[in-house]
């Protein structure tokens, strides 16, 4: 009798253990197939000087950025087939603008770009340095419905932040991170953080060439990134309130922060 009770007790404990194990597995959060420490270890950060030779490998990230970033996702033209063709030309023009290096994160296992930062150099007198405004969004044949917000986007990108910084700090030359993006497979892997770290190291190595590094935050993630990287928040404003054309684009508020790291 005692032996039978012991066997039943052991059988019951085994069943409970198996049930708990199954429940525990079901409760575990599902991971994206590439959101693993192993894939993160396969990300190699490089400073790319021959930018135009890499444009095709950056195109998918570029298109994804314009379709999904807070500031650009409101503009429907960036998601049309014609818009993608113009964005392709815009990428080439932006890479060819100057010789500022581009910082790229490569996934060595999948042989693709996981993220990149497009940098441009700004001078206190662009005309004197024979530099035009970079990323000429409005130079392309956009649908009239979207032309005004695209022009406003161009104005915000080039003039609002940079002219204020040169006027307030009397700097002569600044490196600006114009666009930073990561692919959807590489979220929560600190890819953007590593890109900025590499970019800062690259500019700091050019001792005496630049006065500061400037970047912009448009969401909580990039806001925290700049905070942790010891950037100083210079200005913060609501893009929708500043540019009325954005009120028709569906997003009621886009808070933009302009950040700077002195060198």
Model description:
The chain is an alpha+beta fold and 263 residues long. The protein is 44% helix and 21% strand. Residues 16-39 have low confidence and may be disordered. The chain has helices spanning 2-27, 37-41, 55-68, 81-96, 144-169, 191-205, 220-228, 239-242; strands at 43-48, 102-107, 112-123, 173-182, 212-217, 232-238, 255-262. Helix 3 packs across helix 4. A 7-stranded mixed beta sheet has the order 1-2-3-4-5-7-6, sandwiched between helices.
Record the SSE blueprint.
Blueprint (H helix, E strand, L loop, with lengths): L1 H26 L9 H5 L1 E6 L6 H14 L12 H16 L5 E6 L4 E12 L20 H26 L3 E10 L8 H15 L6 E6 L2 H9 L3 E7 H4 L12 E8 L1
Parallel strand pairs: 4-5
Antiparallel strand pairs: 1-2, 2-3, 3-4, 5-7, 6-7
Helix pairs in contact: 3-4
